[in-house]
């Protein structure tokens, strides 16, 4: 697997991965593949596709996130975490960041808890709850919110808002429909901070990371 990760261009992302990082990413994919056979965590099967479409896709966002999350130990919520993407790879590579994985489907949260223990990831918390419930219980607790293939952008922003601190950021991982989804967002309520194209090595797909912040209105 190590050679596989290298051949697929993971080093081209400039993340300075060490052997322990590679081993943990490898173990995560192995566990996902094993559980997926029984629990159908994801529709993408096969090691090659898993590496390309899951792991590398998830960590391409890290250089941009590092630019914006400059304070030590930011608190990040991953909405609809599913099989742990992008949160688990991010947690592996950013042990100082605190990630809360929110997932309502219990077979998926069981997998997330399993991976947390298997990899010894002390910087993640798994919540088996609907996002709306967490928004009420942990209002304004997060520096950032992220999601990959969870819901459309307008709905994602609506769900993210209660979770964010006043200066919080939303990281939306999107594909070619990003412009169409942006048209449905009320830009009186949100500011587009960055729109960054993401290049996945050796994979010809369009990916973009949208970074948005809420426009906090003063009370009348």
From TrEMBL:
The task this protein performs is described as: Specifically methylates the N7 position of guanine in position 527 of 16S rRNA.
* GO MF terms held by the record: rRNA (guanine-N7-)-methyltransferase activity
Which top-level enzyme class is recorded in the Swiss-Prot or TrEMBL entry? Answer: transferase
Top-rank taxon, per record? Bacteria
Look up the record and report any one GO term of the cellular component aspect.
cytosol
Tell me yes or no: is Transmembrane among this UniProt entry's keywords: no
Q: Which keywords does UniProt give here?
A: Cytoplasm, Methyltransferase, rRNA processing, S-adenosyl-L-methionine, Transferase
Q: Where does S-adenosyl-L-methionine bind?
A: 80, 85, 131-132, 148
NCBIfam families for this protein: rsmG_gidB
* Similarity remark: Belongs to the methyltransferase superfamily. RNA methyltransferase RsmG family.
Kindly provide the name given to this protein in its UniProt entry: Ribosomal RNA small subunit methyltransferase G
| Record localization | Cytoplasm
The reaction(s) this protein catalyses: guanosine(527) in 16S rRNA + S-adenosyl-L-methionine = N(7)-methylguanosine(527) in 16S rRNA + S-adenosyl-L-homocysteine
Listed EC numbers: 2.1.1.170
Query: Cross-referenced InterPro entries, in alphabetical order?
Result: rRNA_ssu_MeTfrase_G, SAM-dependent_MTases_sf
């Amino acid at each position: 697997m190590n050679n596989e990760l290298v051949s697929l261009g993971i080093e081209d992302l400039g993340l300075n991965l060490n052997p322990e990082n590679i081993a943990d990413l490898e173990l995560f994919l192995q566990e996902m593949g094993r559980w997926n056979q029984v629990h159908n965590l994801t529709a993408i099967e096969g090691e090659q596709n898993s590496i390309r479409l899951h792991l590398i896709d998830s960590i391409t966002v890290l250089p941009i996130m590092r630019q914006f999350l400059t304070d030590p130990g930011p608190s990040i919520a991953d909405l609809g975490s599913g099989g742990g993407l992008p949160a688990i790879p991010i947690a592996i590579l950013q042990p100082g960041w605190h990630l809360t994985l929110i997932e309502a489907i219990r077979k998926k949260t069981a997998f997330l808890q399993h991976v947390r223990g298997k990899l010894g990831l002390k910087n993640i918390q798994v919540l088996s709850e609907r996002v709306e419930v967490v928004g009420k219980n942990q209002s304004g607790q997060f520096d950032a919110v992220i999601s990959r293939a969870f819901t459309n952008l307008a709905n994602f922003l609506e769900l993210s808002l209660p979770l964010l601190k006043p200066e919080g950021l939303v990281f939306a991982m999107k594909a070619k429909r990003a412009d169409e989804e942006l048209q449905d967002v009320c830009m009186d309520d949100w500011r587009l901070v960055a729109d960054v194209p993401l290049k996945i090595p050796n994979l010809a797909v369009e990916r973009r990371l949208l970074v948005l912040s809420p426009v906090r209105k003063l009370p009348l």
